[in-house]
Each structure stands twice: as structure tokens, then as C-alpha cells.
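Input record (Table S2, row 266):
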Amino acid sequence: MNNKTILITGATDGIGKQTALELSKLGHNIILHGRSENKCKSIQKWIEENTESDNVHYLVSDFSRLNDVRRMADELKKRFVKVDVLINNAGVYMNELKYTDNEYESTFAINHLAPFLLTNLLLDQFNDGGRIINVSSIAHTRAVLDWENLNAERGYDHYQAYAISKLANVLFTYELAKKLEDRKISVNALHPGVITTKLLKTGFNIEGASLSEGAATSVYLASSPEVEGVNSKYFVRCEAVESSPDSYSEENQKRMWELSEQLFSL
Ligand SMILES: NC(=O)c1ccc[n+]([C@@H]2O[C@H](COP(=O)([O-])OP(=O)(O)OC[C@H]3O[C@@H](n4cnc5c(N)ncnc54)[C@H](OP(=O)(O)O)[C@@H]3O)[C@@H](O)[C@H]2O)c1
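Output record (NAP complex):
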């Protein structure tokens, strides 16, 4: 699977940045995404210097602004036409309650609504054999889904906000896989491990494993022939494992999809 075009969101730091470097080393064309043009430029330069690749591009979009996600999708369609792999990696841990301009709770908006919207807007751009990879977290197993409080109107628990957004990533994976049954596109989710990054520091103030370890499952799912056609699974350390019981609830999958879809009139 050489020379694929791979879009990695949140590729300006942590796991996404490392994933971009390693996939570039394997010879793929990389589209970095970040919210800061300066950071995108400097990661582009860093990857080009470390891989001798001249096939590293970038798209800038702030995922807390859903109109910016739409603009990014339009720009991608004009500049690159087709993609083979989308890695929905960008994410935040918000210790304090913050609303986006559209008045969505930021964790839910950035971690779930933005990739939900981006992926849906790009569905027609995938080549056959396309792969969508959603970077979730083992934290999804701790989520207690309170449908009435997804926007934190009845109180904000930062850990639950993060865990629910990561459960939403898995629910989205399974529902999208059903919707794409007739297309040659696979959708899988993963937990990258507990990895030293600024998100881990912000949320948990602990040290974790290396960035290479954190990128390994994303790189595997994006590039390995072993997972050709493998669909609707949740991976940890490059192996398909069970996700939480709540994530397998078809009612939850459908409800999360419909709720997200309503927001965008897709
Ligand atoms: N680290 C862990 O132990 C761990 C464990 C489980 C799951 N994860 C998941 O792994 C993924 C990557 O996290 P990480 O640990 O590598 O975190 P990180 O180092 O903080 O990187 C997060 C990336 O997301 C981008 N981002 C944040 N807010 C954004 C926004 N509003 N718009 C656009 N981009 C935005 C960041 O951009 P900037 O560079 O501008 O900040 C950065 O590129 C996340 O989905 C996270 O939930 C991480």
C-alpha cells in the first residue's frame, strides 16, 4: 500500500505528529492538519528534513469552529481530490468547561462533532480500499452516557466529558461501518496507549509511553496489508479487542449518529 494519500488530523503535536512522520517514512503522501499555520509549517519542514519526502502538505482548521471544518473539507476537495486514509486523531482534554462559538461543549465538539462532520463531508473523496481510523481511548470504557447532559447544561465533569467524547468516537465507528457496507471503505477505532503528550499532562498529569508506541496502531491500521478489509473493530496494540458494552449498543450508535447529524443537516 505505497504512495497513499493520508490525512492526519491533529498532526502538529503528540501522537499525530509521530504518526505523520512514520507514515511519511513509509513513502506515503501526507496531509497534515493543525489549527496553527505556523505549527503546520514547522512540522512539514521537520518531516521533510527527516524523511527527504517532498510530499507533505497541510490544511489549517480550528475544530472548535465547525464552519472551519467545512471550509477545510472544501479546500481538500479542491487541492487533493482523493484520499486513501483519514486518521481522525485531533483531540483535547478540557479541565474547565468551555463552549465553542456555536455553543457546544468544547470536548464533545472538538473530539466528536468535528471528526463526524469532516468524515461525512469527505466520504465521496475516498478511493476504493479507503480506510477511516478513529483515535479513541480506553477512557471510553468509563463513560456514563447521560444523553440529557451532553452539552453540560446540568454540570460539567471533565473526565466524563472526555470519556463520553471517546465513546462517541467508537459509536461513530460502528455506525459508519454499517452505513458504508456497500462501499469499499473500512472504519476502525483504536486506543493508542497511555502516551506522554500535552493531552496526557493536561488531563492526568502523568508520564506515559513513547510517541512511537502511541503512533504504532494508527500506522498499522493506515498502512498494513494485514488489515485490508478489516472493518468495524476496536484495536489496542495492533490487535482487535472488545470495546465497552455500551459501544456495542445499536440504540446508542443510532442515537449518537442521529443527534450529530441533526446538528449539521447532512
Ligand atoms: N496521550 C494519550 O495517552 C492518549 C490516550 C488515549 C487516547 N489519546 C487520543 O490520542 C489523540 C491525540 O492526542 P495526543 O495525546 O497526541 O494529544 P496532543 O499532543 O495534545 O495533540 C493533540 C492534537 O490535536 C490538535 N488540536 C487540539 N485542539 C484542536 C482544535 N481545536 N482544532 C484543531 N486541532 C486541535 C492539537 O493541535 P496543537 O498542536 O495546536 O495543540 C494537536 O495537533 C487524541 O484523540 C486523544 O484523545 C491519547
